[in-house]
Amino acid sequence: MQKLPAYYNFWHYLGHYGLKAAAFLVLLFLMLPILIIIPLSFNAEPYFTFTEGMLALDPAAYSTRWYAEILTDLKWTLAIQNSFIIGIASAIVATILGTIAAVGLASPVMPFKRLITALLISPMIVPLIIIAAGMFFFYTRFNLVGTYTGLIIAHAALGVPL
């Protein structure tokens, strides 16, 4: 453990340990929902709550039923397949476009560098609901609503600034 400097006064100590306490509380706030959801995912009952058996640690109250459901239900497997297809394709497209943009913007002779930079980072600034609504109305003209191509383009556009 790191020793604090000798010149620290009361306020330094208070700030140091206060920052550590605040960071711990933020981490706890972010992790608590996950720590609650994980035991609930092993519930044998069809509703999402802690049952009497779960609280008494009865082995009959726990089950891997919902994990088996994800792997056997056609709707879940199709959703997982769609996520992989769209996620991988959009990551590849966004990486290629982002790399090309970064190389171009790094050039000292690039014209309109500030304008292009502002345009490229705009998906990070504009709220997602505005982007989604705009893309939906734009996509309707080209019949891209609900297609793999439309979803890949939309996700890649949001990933290019990153």
Helical proportion?
over 70%
The low-confidence runs, each spanning 5 or more residues with pLDDT under 50, are none
Structural class: mainly alpha
Straight-line distance between termini: 36 Å
Mean pLDDT: 91
Question: What proportion of the residues form beta strands (DSSP E)?
Answer: under 5%
**Could you describe the largest sheet, including whether it forms a barrel?**
none
Number of domains: 2
Rounded radius of gyration (Å): 25 Å
Give the CA-based shape: flat
What is the helix tally? 7
**Total beta strand runs:** 0
Helices and strands, in order, run as HHHHHHH
Model description:
The chain has helices at 10-40, 52-55, 65-72, 74-106, 113-125, 128-141, 148-159. It is mainly alpha-helical and 162 residues long. It has 2 domains: 10-68, no CATH class; 73-159, no CATH class. Helix 3 (65-72) packs across helix 4 (74-106) and helix 4 (74-106) packs across helix 7 (148-159). It starts with 9 loop residues before the first helix and ends with a helix.
Please summarize what this structure is.
This protein is an all-alpha fold. It is 71% helix and 0% strand.
